[in-house]
Amino acid sequence: MPRLLLPLLLVLSFFSSSTLADEYRDTVKMFQDADAPNAFFKSAYGYAVFPTIGKAGFFIGGAYGEGRVYQHNKFTGTTTMTQASVGFQLGGQAYSQIIFFEDARAYNEFTSGNFEFSAQASAIAITAGASAEAGTKGTGTSASGGQNNATTSANYYRGMATFVIAKGGLMYEAAIAGQKFSFTPK
Protein backbone atom coordinates (compact mmCIF):
# COMPACT_ATOMS: atom_id res chain seq x y z
CA MET A 1 0.00 0.00 0.00
CA PRO A 2 2.74 2.58 0.82
CA ARG A 3 4.21 2.02 -2.67
CA LEU A 4 0.94 3.18 -4.22
CA LEU A 5 0.59 6.15 -1.90
CA LEU A 6 3.71 7.98 -3.09
CA PRO A 7 2.81 8.00 -6.81
CA LEU A 8 -0.75 9.07 -5.93
CA LEU A 9 0.54 11.98 -3.85
CA LEU A 10 2.87 13.04 -6.66
CA VAL A 11 0.00 13.07 -9.15
CA LEU A 12 -2.24 15.05 -6.79
CA SER A 13 0.48 17.61 -6.12
CA PHE A 14 0.95 18.07 -9.86
CA PHE A 15 -2.67 19.13 -10.20
CA SER A 16 -2.71 21.33 -7.11
CA SER A 17 -4.07 24.84 -7.34
CA SER A 18 -0.64 26.34 -6.70
CA THR A 19 0.64 24.61 -9.82
CA LEU A 20 -2.28 26.05 -11.77
CA ALA A 21 -1.70 29.49 -10.27
CA ASP A 22 1.94 29.31 -11.34
CA GLU A 23 0.86 28.34 -14.87
CA TYR A 24 -1.37 31.42 -15.11
CA ARG A 25 1.24 33.70 -13.53
CA ASP A 26 3.91 32.38 -15.92
CA THR A 27 1.64 32.90 -18.94
CA VAL A 28 0.81 36.48 -17.92
CA LYS A 29 4.53 37.17 -17.42
CA MET A 30 5.28 35.77 -20.87
CA PHE A 31 2.79 38.22 -22.42
CA GLN A 32 4.10 41.09 -20.25
CA ASP A 33 7.62 40.40 -21.51
CA ALA A 34 6.50 40.61 -25.16
CA ASP A 35 6.58 44.12 -26.60
CA ALA A 36 3.25 44.15 -28.43
CA PRO A 37 0.82 43.44 -25.54
CA ASN A 38 2.85 45.09 -22.76
CA ALA A 39 1.07 48.47 -22.93
CA PHE A 40 -2.34 46.77 -22.70
CA PHE A 41 -1.59 45.56 -19.17
CA LYS A 42 -1.28 49.18 -18.02
CA SER A 43 -4.51 50.46 -19.54
CA ALA A 44 -6.89 47.48 -19.87
CA TYR A 45 -9.96 47.17 -17.67
CA GLY A 46 -9.34 43.43 -17.50
CA TYR A 47 -8.22 40.38 -19.43
CA ALA A 48 -8.78 36.66 -19.97
CA VAL A 49 -5.70 34.44 -20.14
CA PHE A 50 -5.44 30.90 -21.52
CA PRO A 51 -2.12 29.17 -20.70
CA THR A 52 -2.68 26.41 -23.28
CA ILE A 53 -5.18 26.03 -26.08
CA GLY A 54 -4.93 22.83 -28.10
CA LYS A 55 -5.97 22.94 -31.74
CA ALA A 56 -6.19 20.23 -34.40
CA GLY A 57 -7.70 19.93 -37.83
CA PHE A 58 -8.11 17.82 -40.92
CA PHE A 59 -10.45 19.89 -43.14
CA ILE A 60 -12.73 20.25 -40.11
CA GLY A 61 -11.01 21.42 -36.97
CA GLY A 62 -11.47 22.37 -33.39
CA ALA A 63 -9.73 23.89 -30.41
CA TYR A 64 -10.26 23.93 -26.65
CA GLY A 65 -8.70 25.73 -23.72
CA GLU A 66 -9.41 26.72 -20.13
CA GLY A 67 -8.56 30.11 -18.71
CA ARG A 68 -9.07 32.71 -16.03
CA VAL A 69 -10.61 36.15 -16.18
CA TYR A 70 -9.20 39.17 -14.34
CA GLN A 71 -10.71 42.59 -13.65
CA HIS A 72 -8.17 45.21 -12.56
CA ASN A 73 -5.67 42.34 -12.02
CA LYS A 74 -8.03 40.51 -9.62
CA PHE A 75 -9.20 36.98 -10.43
CA THR A 76 -12.98 37.05 -11.03
CA GLY A 77 -13.78 33.68 -12.62
CA THR A 78 -12.93 30.91 -15.02
CA THR A 79 -13.57 30.64 -18.73
CA THR A 80 -13.45 28.00 -21.42
CA MET A 81 -12.88 28.49 -25.13
CA THR A 82 -14.12 26.19 -27.86
CA GLN A 83 -13.49 26.77 -31.54
CA ALA A 84 -14.83 25.16 -34.68
CA SER A 85 -13.27 25.70 -38.10
CA VAL A 86 -13.95 24.66 -41.67
CA GLY A 87 -11.59 24.87 -44.64
CA PHE A 88 -8.17 23.59 -45.61
CA GLN A 89 -6.35 22.67 -42.42
CA LEU A 90 -4.00 19.92 -41.47
CA GLY A 91 -2.07 19.37 -38.26
CA GLY A 92 -2.13 20.39 -34.65
CA GLN A 93 -0.72 23.07 -32.42
CA ALA A 94 -0.76 24.47 -28.91
CA TYR A 95 -0.72 28.16 -28.07
CA SER A 96 -1.32 30.64 -25.27
CA GLN A 97 -3.87 33.40 -25.73
CA ILE A 98 -4.79 36.60 -23.91
CA ILE A 99 -7.80 38.82 -24.56
CA PHE A 100 -7.73 42.38 -23.19
CA PHE A 101 -10.94 44.24 -22.34
CA GLU A 102 -10.75 47.97 -23.01
CA ASP A 103 -13.55 48.97 -20.65
CA ALA A 104 -16.35 47.71 -18.39
CA ARG A 105 -18.68 47.26 -21.38
CA ALA A 106 -16.29 44.82 -23.10
CA TYR A 107 -15.59 42.98 -19.83
CA ASN A 108 -19.32 42.66 -19.09
CA GLU A 109 -20.03 41.48 -22.62
CA PHE A 110 -17.38 38.74 -22.31
CA THR A 111 -18.48 37.65 -18.81
CA SER A 112 -22.22 37.72 -19.56
CA GLY A 113 -22.31 33.94 -19.98
CA ASN A 114 -21.68 32.81 -23.54
CA PHE A 115 -19.66 35.14 -25.72
CA GLU A 116 -18.67 34.48 -29.33
CA PHE A 117 -15.93 35.90 -31.54
CA SER A 118 -17.10 35.92 -35.12
CA ALA A 119 -14.98 34.74 -38.00
CA GLN A 120 -13.89 38.36 -38.51
CA ALA A 121 -12.10 38.59 -35.15
CA SER A 122 -8.36 38.22 -35.41
CA ALA A 123 -5.43 37.70 -33.11
CA ILE A 124 -1.94 39.13 -33.33
CA ALA A 125 0.72 36.41 -33.32
CA ILE A 126 3.81 37.48 -31.38
CA THR A 127 6.23 34.62 -31.82
CA ALA A 128 8.79 33.94 -34.49
CA GLY A 129 7.26 33.40 -37.87
CA ALA A 130 4.82 35.16 -40.10
CA SER A 131 1.11 35.73 -39.80
CA ALA A 132 -1.68 37.25 -41.79
CA GLU A 133 -5.04 38.57 -40.73
CA ALA A 134 -8.23 39.55 -42.45
CA GLY A 135 -11.35 40.94 -40.91
CA THR A 136 -13.84 43.73 -40.97
CA LYS A 137 -11.08 46.14 -40.01
CA GLY A 138 -9.08 45.29 -43.15
CA THR A 139 -6.25 42.96 -44.05
CA GLY A 140 -2.64 42.88 -43.03
CA THR A 141 0.46 40.78 -42.61
CA SER A 142 3.26 40.79 -40.10
CA ALA A 143 6.52 39.06 -39.29
CA SER A 144 8.56 38.94 -36.13
CA GLY A 145 11.80 37.47 -34.93
CA GLY A 146 10.65 36.34 -31.50
CA GLN A 147 8.18 36.96 -28.73
CA ASN A 148 10.24 39.74 -27.16
CA ASN A 149 10.82 41.72 -30.32
CA ALA A 150 7.56 41.35 -32.20
CA THR A 151 7.08 44.06 -34.76
CA THR A 152 3.30 43.81 -34.76
CA SER A 153 1.01 46.12 -32.89
CA ALA A 154 -2.70 45.96 -32.23
CA ASN A 155 -5.58 48.18 -31.31
CA TYR A 156 -8.83 47.35 -29.61
CA TYR A 157 -11.52 46.10 -31.95
CA ARG A 158 -15.01 46.33 -30.46
CA GLY A 159 -13.40 46.78 -27.06
CA MET A 160 -11.13 43.73 -27.19
CA ALA A 161 -7.57 42.98 -28.31
CA THR A 162 -6.26 39.43 -28.65
CA PHE A 163 -2.68 38.16 -28.67
CA VAL A 164 -1.37 34.64 -29.24
CA ILE A 165 1.99 33.03 -28.49
CA ALA A 166 2.62 29.69 -30.20
CA LYS A 167 3.88 26.92 -27.94
CA GLY A 168 4.46 24.19 -30.49
CA GLY A 169 3.07 22.03 -33.23
CA LEU A 170 2.68 22.34 -36.96
CA MET A 171 -0.50 23.39 -38.65
CA TYR A 172 -1.35 24.54 -42.14
CA GLU A 173 -4.65 26.28 -42.51
CA ALA A 174 -6.79 28.50 -44.67
CA ALA A 175 -10.01 28.17 -42.74
CA ILE A 176 -12.88 30.15 -41.28
CA ALA A 177 -13.26 29.75 -37.54
CA GLY A 178 -15.30 31.14 -34.69
CA GLN A 179 -14.51 31.00 -30.99
CA LYS A 180 -17.08 30.61 -28.23
CA PHE A 181 -16.36 31.43 -24.59
CA SER A 182 -18.18 30.54 -21.40
CA PHE A 183 -17.65 32.24 -18.04
CA THR A 184 -18.17 30.99 -14.50
CA PRO A 185 -17.81 33.58 -11.70
CA LYS A 186 -15.42 32.82 -8.85
From TrEMBL:
Keywords, in A-Z order: Signal
Residues covered by the Ysc84 actin-binding domain: 83-152
Protein origin, superkingdom: Bacteria
Record carries keyword Ion transport: no
Signal peptide: 1-21
Oxidoreductase among keywords: no
This protein's name: Twin-arginine translocation pathway signal
Organism annotation: Hydrogenovibrio crunogenus
